[in-house]
Amino acid sequence: MRILVTGASGLLGLNLSLGMIETHTIVGVDRNKLTGTPFEIVKADLLEAGACSRLIDEVQPDAIIHTAANANVDACESDPEGARLLNAEFPGQLAELCAQRGVRMIHISTDAVFDGTKDSIYTENDSPNPLSIYARTKLDGENAVLSGNSAAVVARVNFFGWSLSGGRSLSEFFFNHLRAGKPCNGFTDVWFCTMFVGDLADTLVSMLEKNLSGLYHVVGSEALTKYDFGVRIARQFGFDEKLIRPISVEASGLTAKRSRKLRLSVHKLSTDLGLEIPGVSTGIQKFYTQYAQGYPQKMRSYQQV
Predict the structure, then answer these.
(1) Is residue 97 within 8 Å of residue 52, measured between CB atoms?
(2) Most buried among 16, 53, 116, 208, using CB within 10 Å?
(3) Which residues pair with 2 in a beta bridge?
(4) Spatial CB neighbours of 271, under 8 Å, sequence gap ≥ 6
(5) Which pTM does this prediction carry?
(6) pLDDT for 159-190, tens place per residue?
């Protein structure tokens, strides 16, 4: 399968592209962050008029996995118009182009479309209630994709792993602080179902191969607090878990509102794929194994200086 990956320098985009080069032909879209990658790179500004149409004509992909977004929650608060263009408007335009050209599409969304006030598990049938500009624009993007292309997949995700810069994921946040012996905060009242990015990449490609369509929760099968996640990272790497301060998100001083209880059901995904969805424990082990094998250094070697 020939897969076009937007946001190829991002945490998901780069891990997915590197992970799939043995089994699929990957073409990554990047503006100016990557060099020397073992997959083809096309330089493009997705928001430039006509750029996406030209890109599809040039690459002729069988499928597009659209990971590009403004995912900086607090930055979206200060630039709502930019967030709207990239997170809401563009995905709808891309979905329509894919429908017209017969190209399959997976659009990456977020678990943050929910407000996190539900005590039980969220399913795909639950009504979202986004709290931040980031979450609102991502929900608008979901709706634009599904209304413009009924064959597309919208995947609500939460994931962790190694990134190009070394500081994009929560796992790297804990790793960097704990390795340096620096105290850091872990929220005891924010629950999530995070998935290792390598497992997420495998799952997304399996969804393409199975020809799935519609809305799916593509997250880990286990819910835990962000504090507990940090403690597990510490224990896996042999760091001092006492450096993690258990605090409430209300005491964090973050700009945008965060949802507290994002426990998402993966029953629909597991049933339709016929697979057991990985949990966070095995994911943290894989995160550690990659570190031991020098994967973070390899990733950084692709960074444009």
Answers:
(1) yes
(2) 16
(3) 25
(4) none
(5) 0.96
(6) 999 999 999 899 999 999 999 999 999 999 99
Of 140, 179, 209, 160, whose CA–CA distance to 15 is shortest?
160
Q: Is residue 305 part of a domain?
A: no
Give the β-pairing of 25-30 and 2-6: parallel
Per residue in 5-29, pLDDT (tens digit) is 999 999 999 999 999 999 999 999 9
Nearest to 280 by CA among 200, 189, 184, 178: 200
Among the listed residues 80, 244, 112, 274, the one whose alpha carbon sits nearest the alpha carbon of residue 174? 244
Coil vs helix vs strand at 4: strand
**Percentage of the chain surpassing pLDDT 90?**
91
Q: Closest Cα partner for 204 from 30, 24, 9? A: 24
CATH number of the domain that 77 lies in? 3.40.50.720
Return the ∠ at Cα 184 (arms to 179 and 185), rounded to 5°: 145
CA distance 288 to 283: 9
